[in-house]
Every structure is written in structure tokens, then in C-alpha cells.
Design goal:
86 residues, alpha+beta, Alpha-Beta Plaits, 3-stranded antiparallel beta sheet, 38% helix, globular
């Protein structure tokens, strides 16, 4: 499923983070199966050595944020929500 427009890509919001690619893939698949459009950002380990962030972030378009958070909580995946959202 593609994003609705470039404007929505620019306005996407980070909602979840994990260090584990398996958890990331499961979260993304769950949200997409429920019709939530996602944009993923993977940050590599080599960046972490330089002090940058490491892991996998999941972003959604603003209109889907509340629904995505609700879906994650209902499926015992709320622990992956970013602290600012949880």
C-alpha cells in the first residue's frame, strides 16, 4: 500500500521503536493488515558507534496515529510505542 502523497510523507509521525527486526516486521505487518499506512526507518548499527540512534522506527501518517497506537495496545505491543506517545 503506497502513501497517499508526498505531503503526508513529510508530515509522518514516529510512533514506535525497536532494536529487533523481527518485532519491527510484525508491528508493521499488523498495522498494514488493518489499513494503517506505514513508513519505516531503519538506522544501522554503524551509526550507533558514532553516537547516532540505532534500531527501527515506524512512522505513520498523522490521520492514522491514534488508530495505530490503539491497535498496538490492543495487541500487547504497546511497549514499543515511543515514550512521548505511550
Amino acid at each position: 500500500m503506497g502513501l497517499r502523497s508526498n505531503a503526508l510523507i513529510m508530515a509522518s509521525l514516529r510512533i514506535a521503536h525497536t532494536f529487533d527486526i523481527g518485532s519491527f516486521a510484525a508491528i508493521k505487518a499488523l498495522l498494514e493488515s488493518r489499513g494503517v499506512e506505514t513508513l519505516d526507518i531503519a538506522l544501522g548499527g554503524h551509526l550507533a558507534i558514532a553516537g547516532a540512534d540505532q534500531g527501527y522506527y515506524l512512522e505513520v501518517v498523522p490521520d492514522d496515529r491514534a488508530r495505530a497506537c490503539r491497535i498496538l495496545r490492543e495487541n500487547d505491543l504497546g511497549k514499543y510505542l515511543l515514550e512521548s506517545i505511550a
